[in-house]
Amino acid sequence: MESLLPPWASFIGVVLATGLFLRAVFGRGRPVYNLPPGPKPWPIIGNLNLMGALPHRSIHELSKRYGPIMSLRFGSFPVVVGSSVDMAKFFLKTHDVAFTDRPKTAAGKYTTYNYSDITWSPYGPYWRQARKMCLTELFSAKRLESYEYIRGEEVRALLHDLHGASGRVLMLKDYLSTVSLNVITRMVLGKKYLEQEVATKEGRKVTTPEEFKWMLDELFLLNGVLNIGDSIPWLDWLDLQGYIKRMKKLSKMFDRFLEHVVDEHNERRSREGASFVANDMVDVLLQFADDPNLEVKLKREGVKAFTQDLIAGGTESSAVTVEWAISELLKKPEVFAKATEELDRVIGRGRWVTEKDIPSLPTSTPS
């Protein structure tokens, strides 16, 4: 007996049956969460329409309306935002293990060697190993103390430059960024690679001071942008905002510099042989990479990713923190006067303040 149905009907039937089956399996039993208040999301885009050019300010304005904890939806993904001291404690201290991991984004993929750094790597053996490495080796009290002379020299150079610029308007952040970059590159890379154009032995240009500072600014920007493809994955390939193209370009530029750094350090290790002593953090990372007992092998790309983290994280954050501290002091003359009095009383005016003086400076001055 011949079938009276058209030949495509069976295909449609299979598709419908499959759809109903998947809905029955995966649509049933989904937990219903009691989410915090928040704006109603639109289909597909969620609440992305409420994000302006500066998302952190947009979110701050929304928090005024919906409270210190609110729910948003960025494309396909639900987002819970905490915006108070209590909420920060809740997420970062009380439930820190639950929120340790980070979502995979284009920035982590393209600018940090496919999540090989400390910032974007997923929580797990690799991340825990990196954290232990930082605590016991890279940032140990003994190692940081060994770099005190570097910090002292660069701070004195900063004061010399500021004295030379006295009497005219200056952009303090530029000076603070330069001193932070000099300190970090000497601690991490072993020397100030960026005082002049960096070139290979063959004469090929690696980077210039201006280009390197641009790379750092671009790295911070691209790691903080709201990339639409991260929120709506099926649009990722379109790169609607052009961010991924910029990330790929930046990655190539940074890699060219970091390859040069690693090659130079490996050459010194080979040249000195058994007498080799680690002088900087890249040396320490390369020694870790040679350790056969590591739980997770630290590859060359991991060394470069960690190095990039150390340079970027230690430069901008330090400069911005000092800039804000000085800004707050200038806005509060009474606090500025107390700080000056404390320094005059404890240190005097006959010498510069050193790191060893910090324990002698109380947190408040007597009234």
Model description:
- The protein is mainly alpha-helical.
- It folds into 2 domains: 13-99, no CATH class; 125-360, Cytochrome p450, CATH 1.10.630.
- It is 55% helix and 5% strand.
- The chain contains 14 helices and 4 strands.
- The protein has helices spanning 9-26, 55-66, 85-94, 106-111, 125-138, 141-146, 148-164, 172-188, 209-222, 228-231, 243-272, 281-289, 300-331, 333-346; strands spanning 69-74, 77-82, 198-199, 205-207.
- It has a two-stranded antiparallel ribbon. A two-stranded antiparallel sheet has the order 3-4.
- Helix 8 runs antiparallel to helix 13, helix 9 packs across helix 11 (243-272) and helix 11 packs across helix 13.
- It is globular, with a radius of gyration of 27 Å.
- The N and C termini lie far apart (105 Å).
- Mean pLDDT is 87; it is low at 1-6.
- Pfam families: p450.
- The chain crosses the membrane at residues 6-26.
- Belongs to the cytochrome P450 family.
- Keywords: Heme, Iron, Membrane, Metal-binding, Oxidoreductase, Transmembrane, Transmembrane helix.
- GO terms for molecular function: heme binding; iron ion binding; monooxygenase activity; oxidoreductase activity, acting on paired donors, with incorporation or reduction of molecular oxygen.
Residue runs with pLDDT of under 50 for 5 or more positions: 1-6
CATH top level assignment of the largest domain: Mainly Alpha
> How far apart are the first and last residues' alpha carbons, in Å?
105 Å
What structural class do helix, strand and pairing data support?
mainly alpha
Tell me the CATH superfamily of the largest domain: Cytochrome P450
Assembly state (oligomeric) = single chain
The count of DSSP E runs of length 2 or more, i.e. the number of strands, is 4
For the sheet with most strands, the description reads:
2 strands, antiparallel
Helical stretch count?
A: 14
| Helix proportion range | 55-70%
Output the CATH topology of the largest domain.
Answer: Cytochrome p450
Mean pLDDT over all positions:
87
Strand order of the largest sheet: 1-2
Principal-axes geometry comes out as: globular
